[in-house]
Amino acid sequence: MEKTLGIVKPDAVKAGRSGKIIDIIENAGLKIIAMKKISLSKEQAKQFYEVHKDKPFYESLTEFMSSGKIIVMAIEGENAIAKYRQIMGATDPAKAEKGTIRNLYGTNIEHNAVHGSDAPETAKEELAFFFSKYELL
Ligand code: IDP
Ligand code: MG
After folding, report:
1. Which atom of ligand 1 is nearest to the CA of 88?
2. Each residue of 15-33: pLDDT tens digit?
3. How far is the CA of 103 from the centre of ligand 1 (A)?
4. Do residues 18 and 126 lie in contact, with contact meaning Cβ atoms separated by under 8 Å?
5. pTM summary value
6. Atom 11 (ligand 1) nearest CA
7. pLDDT for 40-99, tens place per residue?
8. Structural domains in the chain?
9. Pick from 34, 38, 17, 5: which is nearest to 103 by CA?
10. What confidence score (pLDDT) does residue 8 get?
C-alpha cells in the first residue's frame, strides 16, 4: 500500500469539477483517506512549490495556487503514486491522454486542474505539508 498527495487546483474547484475528479479517483480503485478544502497563502504556495523556484513559471504558478480554494487529498492504494499520475495525465492538458483528469478538466499547462506527488520521498513530504500523522491513519 502506498500513499500520495493529490490536489484539486483552484481552476477546477472554481469550475465546479471537484466531484467529477473525486469520482475518477475512486473509480480507479484508489481510496481518499483524508481530504480538506483550504486556501493557501502566497507564502505557503511558494513553500509547497519550492522545488520549482528557479523556473520561469514559479511566480505565476504560486499566484495561481493561492488564488482560490483548493482540495487536498491523501490518496491510498496499490502503486498509488504511479496510478494517480496515470489518471491525472500529462502536465500539459493538450498532451494528456484522452479521458485523463487533465485532458477532461485542464485548461492549459499551468491551469491543469490537479497536482499529484511524483515519487515516494516527495509524496511523504507533501502529505506531511498538509496532514498530521493522525489524519493519515
Ligand atoms: P506536474 O504537476 O505534472 O508534476 P511539474 O513539472 O512538477 O508538473 O510542474 C508543477 C506545476 O507547474 C504543473 O502542474 C503546472 O501547474 C505548472 N507548470 C509546469 N510547467 C509549466 C510551464 O511550462 N508553464 C507554466 N506552468 C507550468
Ligand atoms: Mg511535479
Report:
1. 3
2. 999 999 999 999 999 999 9
3. 15
4. no
5. 0.98
6. 110
7. 999 999 999 999 999 999 999 999 999 999 999 999 999 999 999 999 999 999 999 999
8. 2-130 (3.30.70.141)
9. 17
10. 99
- Please say whether the dihedral angle defined by the alpha carbons of residues 94, 55, 14 and 36, taken in this order, is positive or negative: positive
Collect all residues with Cβ–Cβ distance below 8 Å to 16 and sequence separation of at least 6: none
Q: What is the pLDDT of residues 55-66, one digit of tens each?
A: 999 999 999 999
Collapsed DSSP state (helix, strand, coil) of residue 101: helix
On the 0-12 / 13-18 / 19+ scale of CB atoms within 10 A, 81 is buried
Closest by CA position to 5, among listed 111, 127, 107, 103: 127
Query: Is the CB of 47 inside a 6 Å radius of any atom of ligand 1?
Result: no
Report residue 42 as a C-alpha cell. 502566497
The full DSSP string for 30-49 is: -EEEEEEEE---HHHHHHHT
Q: Is the CB of 110 under 6 A from ligand 1?
A: yes
